[in-house]
Amino acid sequence: MSSSRVHHFKLVLLGDTAVGKSCLVVRFVRDEFFEFQEPTIGAAFLTQTVQLDESTVKFEIWDTAGQERYRSLAPMYYRGAAAAIIVYDITNPDSFTGAKSWVKELQRRGDPNVVIALAGNKADLESRRKVEFEEAQSYAEENGILHLETSAKNANNVKALFVELAKKLPKNAPQPEREAFPLAAPQNDNRNCC
Amino acid sequence: MISENESNRSLEKTIECMANSDVCSDPYHYHSFVSVSFILLPFYKICLGCDERLEVDVFGTSRPSVRCMACGVYAHRCCAFSKHIKFDKCSVNYTNNKELRELSTVKDDTSDDMSHLSLPSEDGKDSISRPAIEPLDSHELPISEISPSPSASFINELLVASKSDNVESDGPVTRKVPLHFASHGFNVVSQALQENIIVSFNRLMPKENDNRSIHSDDDRASSSDENNSTSIATCSKNSGKLFEPSEPHTVIRKHIPLFTVAGSIVGGFVGVVCAGPVGGVIGAAGIVAGSHLQERIDEARVIELGEGTQQLVLLIRPSIKIPEQIWFDIYQQAKQRYPGNFGSGLVQRLIPNETNAARRERYEREVDIVETGEDEIPFADKVLLLASRILNNKDSLPNHVYRELIDAFRCRALNVQYDEDQNHLNRQQRRQDSHAVIKYVTAALLETKAGFGSSSSIIHLAAIVESLVFSEIYGLVMEEIEMEYENQDNELLEKVANFERKKCQDEYSGYKSCISEAALNALHCIPQAHSAVDKLRYCVAFLEKISEHFSNNTETRSAMGADSLLKMVCQHIVVANVFRINSQIAFLEEFACNEELLRGREGYSLVTLKASIHFLNSSTDFTEIFCHDEV
């Protein structure tokens, strides 16, 4: 495997409370073996690397609080995010409505180039399904966002969600880093000839 | 409690580090001693311990001497480490550690821990016992203040915090693990010592002229340092207690003009004796030259001999506005006043202030640092060591620029204070100025060593410069921020006080079960750190401790998600009742600029803390935070 360049991306998890945001990301991060377990803050901040054919994407995953009372704090979290996963619960139609509002908010106030994925979680609870796949899929197509149904419980589509997201992220974007720039020579050159 | 073997191992590492860096920290009087070559030993110096004159030890028959890098005092080596001889504490290190003194409180007598330890004696052949630590009186500092290093203090805090978290704590932390006895890696000790020296040295620099370090690269003649004295002395008058003079150096400084004239007269006399009229003429010329030199020193001479590298590499922060032209002018003036510019003159060529051997030694040491393996010295520490070597060199351009910019900052800050009374305040000026100081000190370092300009190095370099700069001006900057956020801070404190009164009356009295003492300790440490990087570390520690506490308390041991974390952060902030927490967050927002950190867990911790405080500021009733509905 070629030693490709590692691209760092901030990924934010959005969605109503109890839709399984944390479980989804813990399943993605902890379910796989990786050599270096980087320090995390519970399940609220995690990192995970996705190996693509030509590059490596490292996600820095920021979880957010889903309670309504903390809704106004969300912009602090998704500011500067390159990718976002908006999670809803397929057994809870209200969470899908909430997910739509998150999509709107992100499109309006987030980074214009943010890559959004809509994740219908708890897909293992097929018998209790209240949000049809087609409905969510058509909404996603209308808004030009990714859509997958996932199950954090049995890991179905979890990795695929992050891989698809990684593929859509621009790999040639300049990495935000504190750089040194050459500055022009001082305007007042006081050098004397003698 | 740290075991005896562990303590000895840590001490060995410390001593090994001291041997490598030629510095031996005195844990009792807080001096940073280096040995002094007899060639450089001033004959008029007396020992701080025994008050006897220091001997010139040519044939190894006399007692060797040491000098404190921080305050410049001299002592016999045997006196410096004798348990029987008491002498004054290092004035510079003592001053630096004032803030840390509030942080650290040593209740237990640490003599049990230290009495069994030993250090090499002055001749290095055998060892002498360390004196037992006496109980500290109100004027003494605790042992943990040997190094004011943020990283060292941070580690000590965490050691204590993790201990206190496991044990049911009934109050604030009362015992710290001294740096020399903590279990830590080599690089941490090295970093701590280096930071100690950097901070101390930079505080001392404006007053130091007569002392020469054992390090060859510090041996350069410093007659031209007088150049700085005029402007620095002017500023130091205004800077008040933040810039305390160092007494041992004032005597020689006063006598430099006298020595110059006397030397010139003697030279003329010898010339007459030796070479008759011709020698007399030369001697007279010496008198004139000496007088002229002194005159120019008094005028704060500006000699422009070469501008050095024309292409500066500067640190740009697009989001930060600074009074660019003013600080560019200050920077240029500082460079023009740099005595090294004078070094290419005739006098400097005739009497080089750094020998080839010294230059080679300095170069080899830098090569040693660079070529050491990553496992032994991490990259960040290499940058730190190299940058600190340059800034330690009193003859270097960055050191000179650093001192001048700090003084200029203080002068401008005091002017702002005056303007404020007149309602002509630029409320951001100190912050903008501090950005400028950081920027131009970094620029001076980059000009000296362009390799720092690589993307990976510059992040570490900027953090180092920020730490150094804020060790000098943090108080002034925070004063401005606290003024701006005074209302918000007071309102939050009032809300907390109301909640405290309420919780005594109702069911919220049991809220402490979900509070982590270690997390509270970490939160309380944020105001005591003086740089954005260190504050961010405490922010991370704060969230980690909460997360650990929660994970340990729950039966499922599941990791804590953001839904629970944000609520618990709010709870801890209310319980901790941190003084002026809004100002602390404002400081971090202003100065935490490292994109790499802000994208990672440091950034997440900062945003979570900021979000929690924003929520608390807008909340009218804190009781809902302590409801058990969503945990």
Main attributes of the structure:
heterodimer, A: 194 residues, alpha/beta, Rossmann fold, 28% helix, 24% strand, globular, disordered C terminus, B: 631 residues, Glutathione S-transferase Yfyf (Class Pi), Chain A, domain 2, two-stranded antiparallel sheet, 24 helices, 57% helix, Small_GTP-bd (chain A), nucleotide-binding (chain A), GTPase activity (chain A)
Q: What layout of secondary structure does this protein have?
A:
The complex is a heterodimer of chains A (194) and B (631).
Chain A: E1 6-15, H1 21-30, E2 45-51, E3 56-63, H2 74-78, E4 83-89, H3 93-109, E5 115-121, H4 133-143, E6 146-149, H5 158-168, E7 180-182
Parallel strand pairs in A: 1-3, 1-4, 4-5, 5-6
Antiparallel strand pairs in A: 2-3
Chain B: H1 4-21, E1 24-25, E2 32-36, E3 65-68, E4 74-76, H2 77-80, H3 91-96, H4 98-103, H5 111-114, E5 118-120, E6 127-129, H6 150-166, H7 186-204, H8 226-239, H9 250-298, E7 313-315, H10 324-336, H11 339-342, H12 346-350, H13 356-371, H14 379-392, H15 397-421, H16 429-448, H17 455-484, H18 486-503, H19 517-525, H20 532-553, H21 562-576, H22 581-591, H23 595-599, H24 601-618
